[in-house]
Amino acid sequence: MRYLFDTCTLLWFANGESEKLSLAALSLINTSGNEAVVSVVSFWELAMKTSVGKLSFPGGSVSILSTLCVREGIQIQPLTVECIQQFLLLPPAHPDPFDRLLAAISILGNETTKPLVVLSPDTSFDAYAPWGVTRVW
């Protein structure tokens, strides 16, 4: 199974805060053969929140986090015009534009699979189930 990290889930995983992850999330992360994907949208969200003082994360920088992703075998997916177009087609059921972008990315999937399962505690993603978004937590 291929899955897309929500930003908070990625941060908890990167910081070793496994107690914040659900058993289903831990199982998905730890199951051999599953493939993890993180969007550059999550790096953008972390950078924005850090720059305005809303977030300070151990490890300090987005480049350190991206290095961790590469080391852990997590695919870093770019933001494409198709993702932005899909974002525009979605209703604003989720108030956070970063999470709506992640929903759009989930719908489109990546170059090898469609769609990507979203790994997130945020139940707002469930509003996009009619468009093909599946959330695991």
From TrEMBL:
<feature type="domain" description="PIN">
    <location>
        <begin position="3"/>
        <end position="128"/>
    </location>
</feature>
<dbReference type="InterPro" id="IPR052919">
    <property type="entry name" value="TA_system_RNase"/>
</dbReference>
<dbReference type="Pfam" id="PF01850">
    <property type="entry name" value="PIN"/>
</dbReference>
<protein>
    <submittedName>
        <fullName>Twitching motility protein PilT</fullName>
    </submittedName>
</protein>
<dbReference type="InterPro" id="IPR041705">
    <property type="entry name" value="PIN_Sll0205"/>
</dbReference>
<dbReference type="InterPro" id="IPR029060">
    <property type="entry name" value="PIN-like_dom_sf"/>
</dbReference>
<dbReference type="InterPro" id="IPR002716">
    <property type="entry name" value="PIN_dom"/>
</dbReference>
